[in-house]
Amino acid sequence: MTELITPELVSLDAPLGSSSAEVIKELSALLAGTGRATDADALAADGLAREEKTPTGVPGGIAIPHCRSAAVAVPSLAMARLPQTVDFGAKDGGADLIFFIAAPAGADKDHLKLLSKLARALVKKTFTSALREAQTPEEIVELVRAVTSEAPQAPAAQAPAETAAATESPAAKKRIVAVTACPTGIAHTYMAADSLAQTAADLGVDFAVETQGSSGSTPLPAETIAAADAVIFAVDVDVRDRARFAGKPVIQVPVKRGIDEPEKLIKDATAASNDPNARKVPAGGPSESSEETGGKESVGAGLKRALLTGVSYMIPFVAGGGLLIALGFLFGGYDITDVADEILGANTLFNLPEGGLAAYLGAVAFKIGALSMGFLVPALAGYIAYAYADRPGIAPGFTAGAVAGFMGAGFLGGIVGGLLAGLAARWINSWNVPRFMRGLMPVVIVPLLGSIIASGLMFLFLGGPIAKLTVALNDWLSGMSGAAAAVLGLILGLMMAIDLGGPVNKVAYSFAVAGLGTGSITENPAPLMIMAAVMAAGMVPPLALALATVLSPKLFSQAERENGKAAWLLGAAFISEGAIPFAAADPLRVIPAAMVGAGVTGSLIMSFGVLSQAPHGGIFVFFAMNNTWPMFLVATAIGTVVSAGLVVLLKKFARRSAPVEAGAATAGKVAA
């Protein structure tokens, strides 16, 4: 098996930059320079994206940036011992020992197990002390090889059936079980598990942990869970098969707190086991806990989580369906909307209509796209309900969404129907029913009663008023012109650029795609204008950063200049995330500049009256726009120039520090 680390991948006491981003870029270049990665910039971008989710600094002056990336050729580990500490987000200060774990996108479990062993070793003071005292890269390599080749150190993390302490009678101690999981499942998952296990042993608590990581997961035995007095979920993602822990007092926190505050978590879980009013794992559905406190989730936080869940599951229907509709227009013309059903009913591939193969393929593409778009409201409602009640909520949610569509309540009706279905399903699922009925609850009783409650309320009371509100909103949008339309475009443009694919960006995008089903070029063009404004504004940030790297390349590192080349295509295709590497490295200057240009573009699109019947694709779906599509390009170009100019000005006159050209040069050689 290829070694994870070699002396060439170790940097001892050399300055690699003053920020976590600079260090990650340098270590990415080191991996690429030794042939371990194919693209230093792509690897750095993936590492920085992971860093944005949760900072990887841990107590003791250690940081473990890590990612899975398509740019990684061989599972690898780059290590740096820095002459000064760099902030990686740990509560106790900066880090001087940096381990950059790079795994391929499809890394096999054997390699991931080795990486997880290293992560667990980093919670041991003897290991980190030896790393700080090592004199040569070869010594570092030997230390790392020793911990990655030895037997697992934490029985609780590797063999959940065993406990962390066994010297006292089981009746004399509390029994705590835990689940740890992080988004990538490489480092934090296992470090949190070992940290909790060691602390539990010190406190005399009977403990077992299930690591739901990338190197595999061995579920806790049912008898271990049944005997537990409380459960700790130290997770940044959903717990798999959460229902196993139903009824147990629970403490839920981000996975990093399992590393930073293990003693507090063990004590909180012990206290919860003695508190009859402590929050318990529900019999079904997602957790209701706050990520930070382990307490009851606020109404606002729950609503936000549910809406974002619904939108994230809805978008694939919209994106795929919208692009198919655009292809239908390309092949069959704009009148395909009126004749698609007739063509498909009377013709086949071997009996082509008057327009020939193009007309037939246009009708096929349009119809598939229209059917996909028809799931917009049901999918939104179904997965909002899923966010509240897990799988038992999906059927009532989809049904309530279909009712909302039938009654003309549209996007707003889907949101309300999904919320009703989710809350109803969660309430029904909480009933204490006889044992013989428990198996029927998720597949019969919850879907049946949840659908009756949510859809009944929509039919009897809420659907009509929401439909009238939807009609009024559409009428208002249809009558919008001049300054009012420009202001709406400005607001939507600002929202698209403020977090580059985050929650605010998704709200603006969802608002736009919700109107596609009600808009038309001739009768109600306003929703199509909004779609064009949102798409053009979302293109501006990556295009602007790409242009800025061309206008003033010395203001950017070599890695950023390489990212700028890719950002041209990403921006042209309406992938706002192409600007994230720049925003992550310099948010206070990049994001405001991007917002200004995006706002200008959104306002201009509304003023020019540009329409788009496609929800995605950027300049590549110009054929789905009306004959003012050249103005789409003009508005996008103006916003791009505005943002690029502001980025250059801010970097010149509001500079934090000079760019690290030494690191840039290294990255440049690697890229070449």
Descriptive overview:
- By secondary structure, the chain is α/β, with parallel strands linked by helices.
- The protein folds into 4 domains: 143 residues, Mannitol-specific EII, Chain A (3-Layer(aba) Sandwich), CATH 3.40.930; 119 residues, Response regulator (Rossmann fold), CATH 3.40.50.2300; 178 residues, no CATH class; 190 residues, no CATH class.
- 58% of the residues lie in helices and 8% in strands.
- Helix 15 packs parallel to helix 18, helix 19 packs across helix 20 and helix 21 packs across helix 24.
- The two termini are 28 Å apart.
Task: Give the secondary structure arrangement, pairings included.
Elements: E1 10-12, H1 20-33, H2 40-53, E2 57-58, E3 62-63, E4 66-69, E5 76-86, E6 95-104, H3 109-121, H4 125-133, H5 137-149, H6 155-158, E7 175-181, H7 188-203, E8 206-211, H8 222-227, E9 230-235, E10 250-253, H9 255-260, H10 262-273, H11 299-332, H12 336-346, H13 356-373, H14 376-389, H15 394-406, H16 410-429, H17 435-438, H18 441-478, H19 482-498, H20 503-514, H21 526-551, H22 558-572, H23 580-585, H24 587-608, H25 629-653, H26 661-671
Helix pairs in contact: 1-2, 1-26, 2-22, 3-5, 3-7, 7-10, 11-13, 11-14, 11-20, 12-13, 14-15, 14-16, 15-16, 15-18, 16-18, 19-20, 19-21, 19-24, 20-21, 21-22, 21-24, 21-25, 24-25
List keywords for this structure.
single chain, 672 residues, alpha/beta, Mannitol-specific EII, Chain A, Rossmann fold, 4 domains, four-stranded parallel sheet, 58% helix, globular, disordered C terminus
